[in-house]
Amino acid sequence: MHRFNPFEISFETLLEICKERHGHLCAGQVIGARLSLLGLQLIGIKDPHGEDRKKFLVFVEIDRCATDAIQTVTGATLGKRTMKYLDYGIMAATFLNLETNKAFRIMAKESAKEKAKEYFPEIETPALRELLAYKIMPVDDLFEVEEVIVRLNDCDLPGKPKKKVICAKCQVVIRDGKEVYVEDKPYCKLCAGLSYFERKSAHG
Ligand SMILES: [Zn+2]
Ligand SMILES: [Zn+2]
């Protein structure tokens, strides 16, 4: 199933799709799917893969199982620039409606793990207990919701790159305003010393 409306299929069917895309069914798929439905609802998105697909952004704060479910359910992706990844290590995501600017940040409650024991005390495996409990737990027990203001840079919107500059040192093309200015000259992040890797040949 390529395009679907998560609001027009059952939650079990939605989980099946999440499972297929993610590779396994886990508590993260349940959390991610429920978080996505809530987030989309809060910002008034009714058909995220269809006519509303360009009307919202999703900011994810972690790269773990639930992130795949968020991608599956919302249809937002890094490649379409509708999903933004922030490397915070926090199980949370923010949904922004680009037309109304309404935004809500939803964070998974750590206490849900304990609560899951109340639902299925007979199940000893935490992963299975949480998977089952998160399907039926009330939203308030799963998530903390906060309305927020997202300050968005024009260069971060979907569509053609609004800005392209050439690095003053290595001449690489830098898109989307990601250059760093040193003494008024633009540099790519690598040349500006913000690299995530070291060059093997660069020693000496
Ligand atoms: Zn998983
Ligand atoms: Zn450079």
How do you describe this structure in short?
This protein is an alpha+beta fold and 204 residues long. It has helices spanning 11-22, 27-42, 65-74, 112-119, 126-136, 139-142; strands at 56-60, 83-85, 92-97, 103-108, 143-148, 164-166, 173-175, 180-182, 185-187. A hairpin with a 5-residue loop joins strand 3 and strand 4.
Description:
The chain has helices at residues 11-22, 27-42, 65-74, 112-119, 126-136, 139-142, and strands at residues 56-60, 83-85, 92-97, 103-108, 143-148, 164-166, 173-175, 180-182, 185-187. The protein is globular. The chain folds into 2 domains: 11-156, 60s Ribosomal Protein L30, Chain: A, CATH 3.30.1330; 160-204, no CATH class. The model has no long low-confidence stretch (mean pLDDT 95). The protein is built from 6 helices and 9 strands; from the N terminus they run ααβαβββαααβββββ. A 5-stranded mixed beta sheet has the order 2-1-3-4-5. The protein has a two-stranded antiparallel sheet with strand order 6-7. A two-stranded antiparallel ribbon has the order 8-9. The protein has 204 residues and is of the alpha+beta class. Helix content is 30%, strand content 19%. Helix 1 packs across helix 3 (65-74) and helix 2 runs parallel beside helix 5.
